[in-house]
Write a structure and sequence with these properties.
The structure holds two protein chains of two kinds. By secondary structure, chain A is mainly alpha-helical. In chain A, about 65% of the residues lie in helices and about 5% in strands. The chains are: A mainly alpha, B alpha+beta.
C-alpha cells in the first residue's frame, strides 16, 4: 500500500511483476519524464505548454498519487493524468486549438533521403495538430506511445470499439491532411 | 512510408536533457513551496478574521444609537397637564360648577432609560410627580 503521507524522499512503487519498492520521488520523475513530456508535446504541439503540463502531472502525482495502489503500474495512471491535464490546458487556452497556418519548410531540390524523412515527420507533426482532440489523443497513445488498444481504452475511459474507430478515422484524416500539405508545398 | 510508420517514427523524437531538468526543478520547487503557501494562506485568513472582528466590534461600540422621540436618556419632557389639581367642593347654592384650580406648578418629568438598547423600554421617571 502507498503511504498516506507522501514525502519528497521515498516513494512506494511497484508493478504486478515485482515487489513494491521505495524510490526517491525525483528518481520517479526521471523514470517517467520522457513519456509524460513527449505525450504532452504531441498532444499540445509546443514545448512550453508541454513543460507546463508535465510539471502539473508530476505535481498531481505527488499530491494525489498516494491514493493509487502501489502494486499497480504507474504508467497508465500517468498517461491518464497527462491526457486530462493537456485537455484542461487546451480548454483554458483556446489559442492552443488547431493551428490553421502551416508554413512548409522550403524544399531543396537536392534533399537526401534522410532529410526527406525528417520533412515527412515534421509534416506528420503538423498534421497531428490539426486532428480533433479525441482522435489525436487516441493516435498519440496508440501509434506514437505504442500502447495497446485495450490500454488506450482504459486510459481514456472508453471502449476498445470506440478507440479503434477513433484511430481509424484519425489515420484517414491524417492521410488527407498530409496530402493537402504536400499539395500546398508543391505549389 | 505510410502514416503509421511515420507516427511510430515520432517515438524517436528526442528532447534536450536540460528541458527534463527544468521540469523536474520546477516541480520540486512547487512541491517544496506548497507547505509555505498553505501556511501563508492560513496566516492571512487568521489576520483577516482578527482585523475584521476588531473593526466590527469598534464600529458597534461607537455606533450612535437611533434616537426615538421621548426616549433619549435623561430627556426632560415638559408636562402638559398640571401635576396637582384640586377640585373644590361645589357649594350647595352655586349654580355654576366650580372649576378645578391649579394648586401646584407642574414640574417637568425627567425620563431615564435604564438601557441603551432602544428595544428595552425600562424607564424611570424622575421627580415627585407620580
Amino acid at each position: 500500500m502507498a503511504p498516506k503521507d507522501l514525502t519528497l524522499t521515498m516513494w512506494q512503487l511497484g508493478t504486478a511483476a515485482d515487489s513494491v519498492q521505495a524510490i526517491p520521488f525525483e528518481e520517479l520523475m526521471v523514470r517517467h519524464q520522457r513519456k509524460v513530456l513527449m505525450t504532452a508535446l504531441h498532444l499540445l504541439g509546443n514545448m512550453e505548454d508541454a513543460k507546463d503540463a508535465a510539471q502539473e502531472v508530476f505535481y498531481r502525482l505527488h499530491k494525489y498519487g498516494g491514493g493509487r495502489d502501489a502494486s499497480r503500474e504507474l504508467a497508465p495512471w500517468l498517461y491518464r493524468v497527462t491526457v486530462n491535464v493537456c485537455h484542461d490546458l487546451r480548454r483554458k487556452r483556446p489559442e492552443l486549438q488547431l493551428e490553421e497556418s502551416f508554413d512548409a519548410p522550403a524544399i531543396d531540390a537536392h534533399l537526401d533521403e534522410g532529410m526527406d524523412l525528417a520533412l515527412q515527420r515534421e509534416m506528420m507533426r503538423e498534421a497531428l495538430k490539426r486532428l480533433p482532440e479525441k482522435e489525436r489523443t487516441a493516435i498519440v497513445l496508440r501509434d506514437i506511445e505504442g500502447l495497446t488498444t485495450e490500454e488506450v481504452a482504459q486510459t481514456l475511459g472508453s471502449t476498445e470499439t470506440t478507440v479503434r474507430s477513433q484511430i481509424s478515422t484519425g489515420r484517414a484524416k491524417l492521410r488527407d491532411i498530409c496530402a493537402g500539405l504536400m499539395a500546398r508545398r508543391r505549389k | 512510408m505510410n502514416e503509421q510508420e511515420l507516427l511510430a517514427g515520432l517515438r524517436e523524437d528526442s528532447i534536450d536533457g536540460s528541458v527534463y531538468a527544468e521540469v523536474r526543478a520546477r516541480t520540486m520547487g512547487r512541491i517544496r513551496r506548497e507547505p509555505f503557501s498553505r501556511a501563508a494562506l492560513a496566516v492571512a485568513a487568521a489576520l483577516i478574521l482578527v482585523v475584521g472582528s476588531s473593526v466590527l466590534l469598534r464600529h458597534k461600540q461607537t455606533e450612535v444609537m437611533p434616537v426615538r422621540a421621548g426616549r433619549d436618556v435623561g430627556m426632560v419632557m415638559p408636562t402638559v397637564e398640571p401635576a396637582v389639581v384640586e377640585v373644590p367642593r361645589a357649594a350647595k347654592s352655586a349654580r355654576v360648577r366650580p372649576k378645578p384650580q391649579i394648586t401646584a406648578a407642574a414640574e417637568p418629568m425627567e425620563i431615564h432609560l435604564m438601557s441603551d438598547d432602544p428595544n428595552i423600554a425600562i424607564i424611570w421617571i424622575a421627580g415627585d410627580t407620580l
